[in-house]
Amino acid sequence: MITRCVVLRFLKFPPNRNKTSEEIFRHLQSIVDFGKNVMTEFFGENYVHHGEVVQLPLDFVKQLCLKIQAERPESRCDKDLDTLSGYAMCLPNLTRLHTSHFAEHRPILCVEIKPKCGFIPFSRHVTQEMKHKVCRYCMHQHLKVATGKWKQISKYCPLDLFSGNKQRMHFALKSLLQEAQNNLKIFKNGELIYGCGDQRDTAADWNELACHLKPFFYPSNGLVGGPHCTGTIIKELIHVITLTLLSSTDKCRAGDMRLVPSSQGRSCCEASPFSKELLRNGKSHAEGSGLPRGCLLYKTLQAQMLDLLDIEGLYPLYRRVERHLQEFPEERDLLQIDGPYNEAFYQKLRDLSTEDDGTLAYALTKVQQYRVAMTAKDCSIMIALSPCLQDECSDQRPVIPASRARFAFSVSVLDLDLKPYESIPHQHKLDGKIVSYYLKNVPPKKEPGKAGLLAEPDDCTLVLHKV
Ligand SMILES: O=P(O)(O)O[C@@H]1[C@@H](OP(=O)(O)O)[C@H](OP(=O)(O)O)[C@H](O)[C@H](OP(=O)(O)O)[C@H]1OP(=O)(O)O
Ligand SMILES: Nc1ncnc2c1ncn2[C@@H]1O[C@H](COP(=O)(O)OP(=O)(O)OP(=O)(O)O)[C@@H](O)[C@H]1O
């Protein structure tokens, strides 16, 4: 008997939001269509798993929901799972290596990263200079800590991860391992072993994590325990994740549609501690940077950059569409606001002009591109790694080498549901909040080379003044 390891995804709604089974089915089908007809074009077939809608026996759904209810994080329980329609999305379990047929019984390590927005807005509509210097993630960290979502500011900066520069990527990944928040999870054989947003002691976590990882990276032992061993194993993990993130395993139509020249916008965020760290260690940016075109990070960044105008430039266009819909509500379907997400929908997304001719069509295209960009800014990347024996490694299968092991791997993208049209006013408000909180509460950084470097607390330079 062949058993398939799959993931079932149910819709969730605020309590008492009654939807008919037909509505649930159509909603799920539109998520599948969007993945299949739109996101696959941007990311490529190998990276996207759009899944399919399945109908399940209601008894099974009820029992399943009872079983998992206790496992659901409290913060997610403001919404109820739909248990009445019997419809769900069926997806491959991406914490398992799906490309391998012979390694089914091997242990599998899976790293999930939610990288967030990897570029600084280049739009001329941006009104706050700070938005051209500090990325949204780094600014948002301060608001999140102030509102109690997280306890401390992360050193992770998405621009480091998306830089394609191995040193910067290592720094970004190490920062994620130090402060995972909701940006990093690690699974072993499908079970979460690291990261889920709790606030445990990171040093203890790293030792525990290293114990889990040791058999993967040092299969024939040879490493004694202790903090040195932990550090070595974590370094190996970071090295392997970097290589998988830079690997190219797909081609896609939109890959040829280079959106924005990489020279546009800054490639470094002023809030990233990376440059500071490097200077402190006496190192410089020696290694080349830039992402290979076929890798998933590159494709993610290109889709994110469909946000050509920034929310500040986009919001007036949203208002234009909104005014039209208020006058002609019956045109919502015609304008494909909620789908169908078909070839025609995708083709319209390819128009990258930023010259506003005052038309509804222009506004609508920019709104839809923005929604796709927001989706790409909130998606996650899953990397599955499976140890691979010497004789199993063939030329057709990509393999990542570590010091004492080799890994077969797969890279996928998940959570590609199109962000709702209705969330745009919220985005606009949140953007204002993030920037104004940052401007009010974070003192401006001193420029390096001026007072900045000598003003470090551990600096002991004695400055003599003429008398
Ligand atoms: O706005 P952001 O950047 O805070 O992103 C939200 C995420 O917060 P994060 O910053 O990643 O901690 C947020 O993540 P959490 O649920 O807080 O883990 C959601 O992904 C949210 O999407 P949706 O509204 O549930 O579809 C995300 O909202 P969207 O902005 O993508 O709609
Ligand atoms: N196909 C999959 N294979 C393995 N794990 C998955 C898969 N899809 C989702 N997950 C896991 O479930 C988590 C939640 O998935 P996702 O964000 O898609 O759900 P959601 O319905 O949007 O819920 P939420 O609103 O809580 O984010 C992911 O972060 C990932 O850890």
Automatic annotation (TrEMBL):
EC identifiers of the protein: 2.7.1.158
Catalytic reaction list: 1D-myo-inositol 1,3,4,5,6-pentakisphosphate + ATP = 1D-myo-inositol hexakisphosphate + ADP + H(+)
Gene Ontology annotations of biological process type: inositol phosphate biosynthetic process
Domain of life: Eukaryota
GO cellular component, one term: nucleus
Keywords of the record: ATP-binding, Cytoplasm, Kinase, Nucleotide-binding, Nucleus, Transferase
Pfam families registered for this protein in UniProt: Ins_P5_2-kin
Keyword ATP-binding in record: yes
Localization, UniProt: Cytoplasm; Nucleus
Signal sequence residues: none
Main enzyme class: transferase
Gene Ontology molecular functions: ATP binding; inositol-1,3,4,5,6-pentakisphosphate 2-kinase activity
Role of this protein: Phosphorylates Ins(1,3,4,5,6)P5 at position 2 to form Ins(1,2,3,4,5,6)P6 (InsP6 or phytate). InsP6 is involved in many processes such as mRNA export, non-homologous end-joining, endocytosis, ion channel regulation. It also protects cells from TNF-alpha-induced apoptosis.
Domain notes: The EXKPK motif is conserved in inositol-pentakisphosphate 2-kinases of both family 1 and 2.
Family note: Belongs to the IPK1 type 2 family.
Entry protein name: Inositol-pentakisphosphate 2-kinase
Species, as recorded: Phascolarctos cinereus (Koala)
Lineage: Eukaryota, Metazoa, Chordata, Craniata, Vertebrata
